[in-house]
Design goal:
Largest sheet: 6 strands, mixed
Strand content: 15-25%
Strand order of the largest sheet: 6-5-4-7-8-11
Helix content: 25-40%
Distance between the termini: 38 Å
Structural class: alpha/beta
Order of helices and strands: HEEHEHEHEEHHEHEHEEHEH
Amino acid sequence: MRRAVDWGSLAPLRIRARIVAEGVYAGAHRSARKGAGVEFGGHRAYTPGDDLRHLDVRSLLRHDHLLVRQFETETDRALRLVVDASASMGYRGSRALGAKLAWAALVAAALARVAIKSGDPLGMSFIGGSKDARAVPVRGGREAFERVVDALEAQSAEGEAGSSLAMLDDAIGSIARSARRGSVVVILSDLLDLPAEAAARIGAICTRGCVVVVVQTLDPDEADFPFKETVRLKSLEGGVTVETDEAARERYLAALAAEQDAWRQALVRRGAKLLTMTTDRDPVSAVRAIVEAAL
């Protein structure tokens, strides 16, 4: 299995993300700024990438440095993206538009584009993946979208997410500690190799008043087990190899359904939402469904 992402028909990422974002119907995303209902929330120091429309030009004369006007609802509606880049996300079957990681990357980039167009700040982190692809701190403005795309394009499917909680904690720890009330957290993962404690850790983010949407990202092969002949399957995480045939399909689908039900119950109990999508799905409809779930 090569480490480079199999993009299939999903690249180039910047162009495709813009096209997908434009395809999401207008007004689906709840903007951070609600027109006349927005309340002024003070100033903070300007950082590169901030929306220049919110600069307080007079502050340069009074304080000798630039300040940005903040609004209460603006700071509350940040988008936090978490993309699973562990080894299992590198799989691509014959019916998929691209590898699971490639499909998740396009959806994440399109969501970032929607957030930026709505004036919302965003950040991103990874579960596993290449050490060269770093997390993106929460920022607003067009530069934030470019940083997200750069990080996604530099990513590769590496690491075993089930071997340690540390990999998951690295991705969601800062969100659990610092996410503001009203933030939207979208997690894109196949959920197949995460530790047993993962659902509780992810669901706990809801206690901070965040909207949490978990998108189980599966290849069509994983969703319906189409194999009719004897095949040898090797796990991309854990190194387990099994030889099986169509007779195992019913047991596999039952086990998958039970696993999905366990995740759904664990997340819903804590106030999170679970969506299941396959990588042959049109990314526009996928992003639209995620946006609607976050409202």
